[in-house]
Amino acid sequence: MKNTFYTFWQLIDECTIEIPTIQRDYTYGREGSREISKKLIHSILKSLQDNDASLHLDFVYGKKLGIDNFIALERNKNSIDTLLLSLKNYAENLNISVNFNTQQKQNLEAEVVTFIPLDGQQRLTTLFLVHWYVSNVLKDNTSKKVLQRFKYATRTSSKEFLQFLTNDTYHFDCNSKTFRKNIENHEGFFTKWLKDPTVISMLSVLEETHKQFLEKRLEAREVWEKLEKKEVITFDFFDLEDFELTDELYLKMNARGKKLTHFENFKAWLFKEFTNQIQINGWKKKIDLEWNDLFWNQKPLGDSKIDIPYLQFFKNMFLGDFLMDESISEKDSNIDLLRSETDFNPVSLFEKNIIFQNNIESYLTVLEYCINLKIKINPLYNEAENVNNFLFSKNIGLSWWHTTMYFAITRYIIKNKSNLTHINKWTRVISNLIYNTPIESPKLFSEAAISILELLDKVQDQNVYEVIEQLKTSEISFFNEKQKEEEIFKAKKIINEPQHDWEVLFIDLENHNYFYGQIGFIFKLNESKDYSIFIENSLKTRLLFSEEIMKNSNYLLYRSFLTFGNCFLKNGNNLTYPSNLRGTLRNRNENWRRFIDQKFIFLKQLVDEINPIDNITSQLNDLINCYVFSSTNNSKLIKNPALLSYPEKNHIRIYDSGYYLLNKTRIYGFFKEVFTYDWFIMNPSTCKEHSIEYIDGKGEDSDPGLLLKNINKKIIIDSKSLKFKLEDESDIYETVEEILKKMKVNV
Predict the structure, then answer these.
(1) What's the N-to-C CA distance of the chain in angstroms?
(2) Using CA atoms, how far apart are residues 509 and 531, in angstroms rounded to an integer?
(3) Which of 356, 318, 347 is nearest to 335 (CA)?
(4) Cα-atom radius of gyration of the chain, to the nearest Å?
(5) What's 395's DSSP letter?
(6) What is the rounded distance in angstroms from the CA atom of residue 592 to the CA atom of residue 596?
(7) pLDDT at 81
(8) How crowded is residue 38: how many other Cβ atoms within 10 Å of its Cβ?
(9) 502, 519 in Cβ contact below 8 A?
(10) With contact defined as beta carbons under 8 Å apart, do 69 and 236 qualify?
(11) CA–CA separation, 161 vs 196, rounded Å?
(12) 538-585 residue pLDDT tens
């Protein structure tokens, strides 16, 4: 089978393209496919807009018909030319002047040879429409004549519409915001064509092309230059007439009623190109048997397809090496395609990149040595997970943290394939470093990957702890300094105190939902360095940050801390308090981890107070209930959890002695005052009886408070004395009830 790199213009310049009767309608403009066409048009135009950009649109299968006719015509022409030349020579001997020539029709092959696509109709039609649109902008009649070779045989109306579009006397205005109406309003357009779904889809795609063309401010002449003369947008063209295994391919395609998957195409290419290069015994059979089972065993129940995660494995493996290439831009479109686009076939990228060719055997080595690998990763998700599950099931659309972990595991296997004894230790240490360091971009991934490879050179296949405990933090690059210190410290504990089972204890703690590998603060709680006390404190901290407490919507944990004193954090002019969010590293760092770092004394006091045996929720509630309440802001916050629930971003502004609960983070937005809002929440029946509403403040010059609707006056707080008063009056009162009583007498 001939596999040739083609552009649309090269193909249509070489032959007529005809969508056969058996093919379906053009669908990319339909409502359900609108997003697909929008993204495809964006990708096409973006590649034409950016310098040095490229776009590969996978495989196009089909058959070329009429080649024999073309050869016969060429042979006949040559015969006629020979005959006429003999006649000319004979005439000249008789002194007779004869003038003749046989001029072959230009691009005769393109007129005689027709390409019938079996797969690729939707992409070819979209490319045709983009080419047609640009030629229309340029009013390029020569190009339009070439585009007349693109035909639809599915319906008469589809055929007529394309003849109408490519009529070289018709040009459509491209300066208005809308374009479709310019076509439909043309005198040559028949309204009956609007009943044809292919025509409707084509009009929709042309409208989207026009819209994006204007938005991107493309220059038509430059775009056409790239379309006609440069290989910016390409596809792999297969003429099945030249495919030695035609019957086999048709059997595979037609028996299942659909085209070959991207993985099947990749596998066929791999077998063809690397047969003599890969030295792993029986690797071709293993791809279909033992290695196939790695993915099959990890698939979700009820799912019978593994081609997508199987191919994604190779994309992920290549991505790690691809990003290590300093010449690759962070904005390279292939990065996102490799990470999460399941409809992206990477063969064209693999075949032109020496990185893949140099590393393919290493990638297959990972499969070979994972067959019997039973290792837990800590802490990738909410619980320890098997390496095989991570590599071969949940391998699509990975975050940059997971992508880095993927790299760390697989490169360890490649480097130490002959001795994987200590891989569990490696996954534990490296996961702690990875998941506690910001890695949110290709650049940061590359820096992390370099550090991982450097660390692997130090570790080799040795006991990881024995190597780590001898290192200084400066000998481990990139990763979070605090986490490096912690990993070295923990390695020392494991190696130097073998009488204690530190490793098991560490794994259990690191796998905690909130700790997520970072547990150094627990050592600070243990001033005596006693192992038993460390175990007790570990249990207490696990309880304090357990799911039961983290899911408590009443800020139970923070209100418990407040009973020991003012433990707010500072954020500019505001006070803040931790949220229980923990989904990302930033969530954890900006909330309870920050609190533990800056308010550690409060954590120690609470840990000393609780008993690991009794129910933790009951203990915290008892702590709050036993608190001696007073007329202070903190007392109100401890007693009434609804106050802490109001600020969306957990921000409070202090003015004089008053606390103002900010809806967002600035005083220019809405806010409530603690004392008045607390009274409003705690006295619903009184509010109803006296028609009292709560009015938020907004801006520095406003006062939130209790609106007495009957007299249209607000009860506010005096920010210095924390007493109540009526706005615009100087008298202050100990309680709201005193004001209500006075107002009732006056009324």
Answers:
(1) 98
(2) 15
(3) 318
(4) 37
(5) -
(6) 6
(7) 55
(8) 16
(9) no
(10) no
(11) 10
(12) 999 999 999 999 998 899 999 999 999 999 999 988 999 999 887 788
Tokens matching residue 93: 């001997």
Q: What is the DSSP letter of 548?
A: H
Please determine, for residue 86, whether its predicted confidence score (pLDDT) is greater than 80. Answer: no
Q: Which strands, in side-by-side order, build the sheet including 2-6?
A: 2-6, 233-239, 55-65, 114-119, 16-19, 150-152
The torsion defined by the Cα of 183, 187, 192 and 196, in degrees rounded to 10, comes to -30
Which amino acid, residue 131?
H
- Cα 656 to Cα 12: distance, rounded to the nearest angstrom: 78
Whose structure tokens read 């499969």?
367
Which amino acid belongs to residue 204? S
Q: 523 with 505: CB under 8 angstroms?
A: no
User: In the block, which residue shows the tokens 């230009």?
Assistant: 106
532 with 516: CB under 8 angstroms? no
Q: Annotate 622-644 with DSSP letters as a single string.
A: HHHHTS---SSHHHHHHH-HHHH
Cα(417)–Cα(361) distance, rounded to whole angstroms?
A: 13
Residues whose CB falls within 8 Å of the CB of residue 117, separated by 6 or more in sequence, listed in order: 17, 19, 20, 23, 60, 61, 62, 124
Q: What is the pTM of this model?
A: 0.65
H or E segment and range at residue 19: strand 16-19
Rounded to 5°, the CA angle 519-553-675 comes to: 115
Q: Is 481 exposed, middle or buried (0-12, 13-18, 19+ CB in 10 A)?
A: exposed
The Cα–Cα gap between 264 and 266 comes to 5
Is residue 714 within 8 A of residue 695, CB to CB? The reply is yes
Q: Is 365 left (phi over 0), alpha (psi -120 to 50) or beta?
A: alpha
Provide the β-strand partners of residue 692.
708
Check: CB of residue 673 under 8 Å from CB of residue 715: no
AA identity, residue 370: C
332-349 mean pLDDT = 91
The tokens describing 384, both together, are: 């320890």
Report the C-alpha dihedral over residues 693, 578, 448, 311, rounded to 10 degrees. Answer: -60
Torsion angle (degrees, nearest 10) of CA 421, 425, 428, 434 = -90
Q: Are 355 and 321 in contact, with CB atoms under 8 Å apart?
A: yes
**Using an 8 Å Cβ cutoff, are 384 and 378 in contact?**
yes
Identity (one letter) of the amino acid at 252?
A: K
Beta bridge partner(s), residue 693: 707
Q: Which two tokens stand for residue 311?
A: 């191919």
On the question of pLDDT at 243 being above 60, the answer is no
Residue 265 burial (CB count, 10 A): 18
3 state DSSP class of 250: helix
Cα–Cα distance, 556 to 242 (Å, whole number):
73
Collapsed DSSP state (helix, strand, coil) of residue 609: helix
Contact 309, 231 (CB under 8 A): no
Only one residue has tokens 């697909």, namely 36
